[in-house]
Amino acid sequence: MSPVSRLRSASCFAFALAAAASAPALQAQTCGLPLPITIPDPSTPYVHSGNTCLAGNVVSLVEGIALPQRDIVYQFRTGGGGSITASFTAAGFAAEMLLVKGDPANGTSTIVDVGSAAVPMTTGPLADGVYTLIVTGDPSWPTPICGTYTLQVGGTLTVPDPNC
Question: Which superkingdom (predicted)?
């Protein structure tokens, strides 16, 4: 089943009742300034805690699918061939994550994969380019739905060609 079909399927959405880390993070990301994901050492994953209730709705539409909930947006660039595994815990709200090739806040993008607190996302190999990881509330629920979460992203990101 394609990522878009899985996103559209209500069975993909699960309640996340695990406790999130207690330290709140600053939510300063905007359309033009997403939070960066860096994985300098594949043995040490990138970890970030956040609260979607403190965020806006940066990405409201991807591939014709409405994303009406508040979201936190992360971004990374890879030179191609890398892979990531993303998982998270969310406290008290039905949370989803989408991996999108491109920058949906500023142009064309394609959904690569979706996941939830119950279903981690493992994807690769990734083609060269910019990827956006969006943490948001289940789009099939009435708005607003938000809460705290802790995201963990591991894997290997290849170095982009500086001539591109």
Answer: Bacteria
Give the C-alpha distances (Å, rounded to integers) separating 58 from 27, 34, 67, 71, 102.
12, 10, 9, 6, 14
For 4, the enclosing helix (H) or strand (E) is helix 3-8
Q: What is the pLDDT of residue 43?
A: 77
Q: CA-CA distance, 21 to 148, in Å (whole number)?
A: 8
The average pLDDT across 42-67 equals 90
**What is the CATH class of 3-156?**
mainly beta
* Domain locations in the chain as residue ranges: 3-156
Q: Is the pLDDT of residue 156 over 50?
A: yes
76-86 tens-digit pLDDT: 988 888 889 99
